[in-house]
C-alpha cells in the first residue's frame, strides 16, 4: 500500500459521503481534532513518572475518543452507515475526572499561566488546541448538521485538560503561577 494516492493533489479530499475542498470547514474541524490528538500524545511522553500513570492511561483513552470525534465530523450528515461514535457517556467520564482533578489541586481564584512541569505545560498546549477545535466545530455547525455530542465533548475536554494540568503540577510539587494582573475570577459555586 502506498501512503500517497495523488487524489488530493488538486486541493480536494474524500470524506464519508463525497469529496470537499481541503480547506472546507469540516476538514478544518476534524483536522484540528487531529492536532489535539497529537498534542495529547506529546503530553503523554512527559508522564513517565508513576505519579501520573493513571492520567497517562486516561489520555490514551481520550486519544481513541478524539478519533471518534473526528470520524463523526468526517461524515456528511445523513450519509453515515452506522450510528455516531461520540456519546454522552464519554462526556460524563470527562466531567467525573474534571471533578476529581479539581479536588487534587489547590483552590483557584485567579487566572494562571500555562506551565509548571513539562507534563502540565504540554497538557496546556493540548487544552488550547482543543479550544481552537471547538471554535472550528462551532463554525461548521453554523453551516451544517453535526453530531452535537462532538461539540460538547470538545468543550468538556478543554476543561479536563485544564484540571489535569493543575493536578499534574500539584502531584509533582509545582505551584501554579497566577497571572499577576488577574482579578479574582473564580469563586465557589455556593457564594452569592
Folded structure, characterized:
The protein is mainly α and 192 residues long. The protein has a single domain (19-76, 87-171), classed as Up-down Bundle (Hypothetical Protein Ta1238, Chain: A), CATH 1.20.1200.10. The chain is 56% helix and 4% strand. The chain has five helices and two strands, in the order ββααααα. It has helices at 25-44, 53-73, 88-104, 118-143, 148-171, and strands at residues 12-15, 18-21. Strands 1-2 form a two-stranded antiparallel sheet. Helix 1 packs antiparallel against helix 4 (118-143) and helix 3 (88-104) runs parallel beside helix 5 (148-171). The longest helix is centred in the C-terminal third of the chain and has 26 residues, at 118-143. It is elongated, with a radius of gyration of 18 Å. The protein starts with 11 loop residues before the first strand and ends in a 21-residue tail after the last helix. The model has no long low-confidence stretch (mean pLDDT 90).
Key descriptive features of the protein:
192 residues, mainly alpha, CblAdoTrfase-like, 5 helices, elongated, Hypothetical Protein Ta1238, Chain: A, EC 2.5.1.17, single chain, CblAdoTrfase-like_sf, two-stranded antiparallel ribbon, 4% strand, Corrinoid adenosyltransferase, 56% helix
Under the CATH scheme, the architecture is: Up-down Bundle
Q: N-to-C SSE series?
A: EEHHHHH
Helix/strand-derived class? Answer: mainly alpha
The fraction of residues assigned to DSSP E strands is: under 5%
The order of strands across the largest sheet is: 1-2
Explain briefly what this protein structure is.
One of its GO terms (molecular function) is ATP binding. This protein has five helices and two strands; from the N terminus they run ββααααα. By secondary structure, the chain is mainly α.
Amino acid at each position: 500500500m502506498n501512503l500517497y494516492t495523488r487524489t488530493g493533489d488538486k486541493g480536494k479530499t474524500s470524506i464519508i459521503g463525497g469529496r470537499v475542498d481541503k480547506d472546507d470547514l469540516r476538514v478544518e474541524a476534524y483536522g484540528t481534532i487531529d492536532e489535539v490528538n497529537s498534542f495529547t500524545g506529546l503530553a503523554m511522553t512527559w508522564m513517565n513518572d508513576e505519579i501520573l500513570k493513571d492520567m497517562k492511561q486516561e489520555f490514551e483513552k481520550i486519544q481513541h475518543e478524539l478519533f471518534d470525534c473526528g470520524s463523526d465530523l468526517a461524515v456528511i450528515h445523513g450519509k453515515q452507515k452506522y450510528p455516531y461514535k461520540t456519546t454522552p457517556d464519554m462526556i460524563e467520564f470527562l466531567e467525573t475526572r474534571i471533578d476529581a482533578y479539581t479536588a487534587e489541586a489547590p483552590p483557584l481564584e485567579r487566572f494562571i499561566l500555562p506551565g509548571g512541569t513539562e507534563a502540565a505545560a504540554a497538557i496546556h498546549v493540548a487544552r488550547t488546541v482543543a479550544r481552537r477545535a471547538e471554535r472550528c466545530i462551532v463554525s461548521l455547525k453554523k453551516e451544517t448538521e453535526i453530531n452535537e455530542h462532538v461539540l460538547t465533548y470538545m468543550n468538556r475536554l478543554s476543561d479536563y485538560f485544564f484540571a489535569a494540568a493543575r493536578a499534574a503540577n500539584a502531584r509533582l510539587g509545582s505551584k501554579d503561577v497566577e497571572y499577576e494582573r488577574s482579578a479574582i475570577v473564580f469563586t465557589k459555586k455556593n457564594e452569592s
